[in-house]
Amino acid sequence: MRENAQRLELHGEIELVDTSRKLLGRTTPFVGREREIGTLEAIVDECIAEPVTRVALVTGPGGIGKTRLRNELVARLAERGVEVWAGRADSMRTGSPFAVLAPALRRAAGLLESEPLEAKRRKLRARVARHVRAEDVPRVSEFVGEIVAVPFSDEASVQLRAARRDAVLMGDQVRRAFLDLVVAETRAQPLLLVLEDLQHGDSPSIELVDAALRTDPEKPLMVLALARPEIHDRFPRLFAERDVQEVRLGPLTRRAAERLRATPSPSDRSARRRWGASSSAPPATPSTSRS
Ligand SMILES: Nc1ncnc2c1ncn2[C@@H]1O[C@H](COP(=O)(O)OP(=O)(O)OP(=O)(O)O)[C@@H](O)[C@H]1O
Ligand SMILES: [Mg+2]
What we know:
The protein is an alpha/beta fold. The chain has helices at residues 2-9, 34-49, 66-77, 101-109, 117-129, 137-147, 158-164, 167-188, 203-214, 231-234, 254-261, 269-275, and strands spanning 22-23, 26-27, 54-59, 83-88, 191-196, 221-227, 245-248, 287-290.
């Protein structure tokens, strides 16, 4: 019952438990995409080994398999002690401030919509305290609280009071808090930040993530953004200064499509149609490119 409630509340925020592989109780295999997942794994490997910050952008039309690829990557990283923060931008809130970063942070802290504000504050503080130095925990919690819409009282906090009267100061403090949090996390373990459906995302999130990639780049932070191709119209300079690796998903290869056809599942029928598995024309080979 409780678990159900939690699942419902997390709807719109990413389920890290991969439900897509089980359709009608059957496990559907992950087919093809060897090159794409290999590219992403190589980026993660480099990010951890150096360490160095990295960003990848997976693009492709609806239903082509972006989320499935992300699920597969996260599953492969499960054994490697990588912390995953995953947020999905909701089409109902396109462009609203922190539309994509807030869900990722809320999920990382386990915040639920229905719980009282005080419970959310407590959870957020506890999550921040996991790796942030004790003396910074109040400040970092208060300003990360501004990102995730968990407002802290400013009665006892001069910094929060001042920032609430000055938007520029607020922006600076929020950025500093987010960077402190990410630096502390990446000192403890590699961090994968997933930004799903970024075509519905927002500039404040992207700017903060960009700052996290840029500041102190020798840390194991990997950003994985996934979006439909219109992302380039919405954010033409997305991570442009960060050497972003774009992975473009096209239709599956014929062999992969055939393997999928060999394990039919009613829910996958429409996806197979989209990939052209049953069309007579040879499916295009998916491509990756650096931009
Ligand atoms: N490589 C694959 N192997 C097996 N099944 C796949 C593969 N890629 C996608 N699918 C299945 O196809 C369906 C649609 O894929 P998915 O949800 O990943 O698309 P998407 O690109 O994320 O679409 P959207 O832009 O709408 O979010 C899902 O049921 C998924 O499990
Ligand atoms: Mg998707």
